[in-house]
Amino acid sequence: QSALTQPASVSGSPGQSITISCTGTSSDVGGYNYVSWYQQYPGKAPKLMIYDVSNRPSGVSNRFSGSKSGNTASLTISGLQAEDEADYYCSSYTSSSTWVFGGGTKLTVL
Amino acid sequence: QVQLVESGGGVVQPGGSLRLSCAASGFTFRSYGMHWVRQAPGKGLEWVAFTQYDGSNKYYADSVKGRFTISRDNSKNTLYLQMNSLRAEDTAVFYCAKSNGHNSGGGYFDYWGQGTLVTVSS
Predict the structure, then answer these.
(1) What Rg do the C-alpha atoms of chain A give, in angstroms?
(2) DSSP annotation of A2
(3) Chains A and B: how many Cβ contacts under 8 Å?
(4) How far is A66 from chain B (nearest CA, A)?
(5) Residue A72's beta-bridge partner residues?
(6) Element at A21 (helix H, strand E)
(7) B109/A91 touch (CB, cutoff 8 Å), yes or no
(8) Which residue on chain A is closest to B100 by alpha carbon?
(9) How high is the pLDDT of residue B103?
(10) Does A4 have pLDDT greater than 80?
(11) Cβ atoms of A105 and A20 closer than 8 Å
(12) CA within 20 to 30 Å of A92's CA: A17, A28, A32, B103, which one?
């Protein structure tokens, strides 16, 4: 049950686009279309942003999008806004009938 | 609206036990799987355990297997986590989270509680 690999930090200026990667194995990310992404502000509970690789829950801005290629999933945020500054975590279902998270990525809006 | 409210956290000595509860409302609790997820201070999220909608199937992270037990009481709309043989490294905020589905085989965490802090220290 090794954690998925995410960059520790990414940054971008308002209006720009950024992409956060999430790398796993064929036993998790690569084996299932069950990748999800969560946004977390300091001291708050995580919030679902993307599910099943590329689907957005109702109420989540269409500036957030997800994709997957092989064992790597990606979260892209376009038109970066100050309110997007937060920690982001990916998660995947695994072949062991468990779930695994990435180590988290701190997004800084410059 | 969906509400998940955790309770039962606190300070416990190494080797001790604690039971967390998660009171659910705003949805048909008995129809959905439920998870526990934890976050150590300043660290990332770690999935802990999952119970199927009817409690018949349960899955655990290797780090807690044999020490933690997830259970649910569908008549009380409540999820539990019994934690035994606690270690310093179990210190974390514990969140309960609702699954979008009723059993394992995929799924994601669509609603989260506010969390309850467990501190294991002598």
Answers:
(1) 13
(2) P
(3) 64
(4) 14
(5) A23, A69
(6) strand A18-23
(7) yes
(8) A51
(9) 73
(10) yes
(11) yes
(12) A17
Give chain A positions within 8 Å (CB) of B108.
Answer: 34, 36, 48, 51-52, 91
* Number of neighbouring beta carbons within 10 Å of residue A56: 17
B35 to chain A: which residues are within 8 Å by CB?
99
Alpha helix segments (H runs only) across B1-122: none
The amino acid sitting at A88 is Y
A3: left (phi over 0), alpha (psi -120 to 50) or beta: beta
Structure confidence by residue, pLDDT tens digits, A43-91? 999 999 999 999 999 999 999 999 999 999 999 999 999 999 999 999 9
- CA of A34: which chain B residue's CA is closest? B106
**pLDDT at B104 (0 to 100):** 72
Rounded to the nearest integer, the mean pLDDT of chain A is 97
pLDDT in 10s for each residue of chain B, 122 residues: 999 999 999 999 999 999 999 999 999 999 999 999 999 999 999 999 999 999 999 999 999 999 999 999 999 999 999 999 999 999 999 999 999 987 777 789 999 999 999 999 99
Q: Which amino acid is at B4?
A: L
Q: B93 and B113 in contact (C-beta within 8 Å)?
A: no
Instruction: Give the three-class secondary structure for B15.
Output: coil
Distance in angstroms (rounded) separating the CA atoms of residues A37 and A76: 11
The dihedral formed by the CA atoms of A106, A71, A61 and A17, expressed in degrees to the nearest 10: 60
A91, A39, A30, A20: which is closest to B46 by C-alpha?
A91
